[in-house]
Amino acid sequence: HQLYVNDLRMQAMAPHISSGAIAKSTAREIGEAAEVVFTSLPGPVEFQDVTLGPNGLIHGMKPGTVLFDLTTNAPSTIRGGTETWTA
After folding, report:
1. DSSP bridge partners of 66
2. pTM for the structure as a whole
3. Burial environment of residue 61 by CB neighbours within 10 A (0 to 12, 13 to 18, 19 or more)
4. Closest CA to 34 of 62, 70, 69
5. CB–CB of 38/70 below 8 Å?
6. For a Cys staple, 46 with which of 36, 41, 60, 64, CB 3.0–4.6 Å?
7. Strand (E) positions, 1-87?
């Protein structure tokens, strides 16, 4: 499988890139390229930006793409996003 990575900090991506991962400049580009996406973010605000923001995953993800959120998130963020994700 091909691994795609995106992070605001290049040093966080560097070890993965050196092992063969492909860097993408936006979360949207990750959504366009991947069938399975894992997010691990600092909190609900960052999660919403990465998933629903102007260059967020939702704008690139194809139907059937799976998102696993490993963020320390708020239940209200996840529950509140359900309608958005299934639209």
Report:
1. 36
2. 0.80
3. buried
4. 62
5. yes
6. 41
7. 4-5, 22-23, 36-39, 66-69
